[in-house]
Each structure stands twice: as C-alpha cells, then as structure tokens.
C-alpha cells in the first residue's frame, strides 16, 4: 500500500517546518520507501508497518504541539510493489511526446 499523509501542528504559530521535519525524519528513519513533497509525505509498505510509521510521525509532533491535524489518503493494491516510482513513470510515459 501507499499512504500519503500530512501532519500539521496546531497552536504553534505559522512557521511549522521544524515540526513537519520531525515527522518526516521518522518516516525516513523507518527504512520504508518514501517521498516528501510540498503537501504530503508518501510511504509504501505493508498495512501494519506503514500505519505504525504514520502513528510514530504523529506522536513526535504531538510531543511538542498542543494539537495535531492529520490527513491520510491510502492506495491499497495487493501485489504491487515500487508503486511510488512506477505510478509516476506511467504518467510520465503518457506525457512524453
């Protein structure tokens, strides 16, 4: 599965990059395939391991923020691996002249 999620600390002011970096660090240290962009971090793996990473990422932000908002989108497709790369490659192939 691929999970795209966004963790937003609330009640800490406008500059939240430091808090988001804490969450992304958890994802990167997990060893699971992942990618971060301006809006979401995507992580790929089995259900239990991916959700455990999301939970840890939220917890690390929760340690420093009085409130946390989380948005999660999941693509559950058994038998597919390397979806983080292959899905993008498919779109790029269709965009090629």
Automatic annotation (TrEMBL):
Annotated source species: Streptomyces beihaiensis
InterPro entries: MTH1187/YkoF-like (IPR029756), Thiamine_BP (IPR002767), UPF0045_domain (IPR051614)
Protein name: MTH1187 family thiamine-binding protein
Membrane-spanning ranges: none
Signal peptide coordinates: none
SUPFAM superfamilies: MTH1187/YkoF-like
Domain spans labelled Thiamine-binding protein: 3-92
Family statement drawn from the similarity comment of this UniProt entry: Belongs to the UPF0045 family.
PANTHER family: UPF0045 PROTEIN ECM15 (PTHR33777:SF1)
Pfam families reported for this sequence: Thiamine_BP (PF01910)
């Amino acid at each position: 599965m691929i999970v795209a999620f966004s963790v937003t600390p609330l009640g800490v002011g406008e500059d939240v990059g430091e808090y988001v970096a804490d969450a992304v660090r958890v994802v990167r240290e997990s060893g699971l395939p992942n990618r971060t962009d301006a809006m979401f971090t995507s992580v790929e793996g089995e259900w239990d391991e991916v959700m455990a990473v999301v939970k840890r990422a939220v917890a690390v932000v929760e340690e420093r923020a009085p409130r946390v908002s989380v948005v999660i989108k999941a693509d559950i497709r058994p038998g597919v691996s390397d979806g983080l790369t292959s899905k993008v490659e498919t779109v790029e192939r269709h965009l090629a002249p």
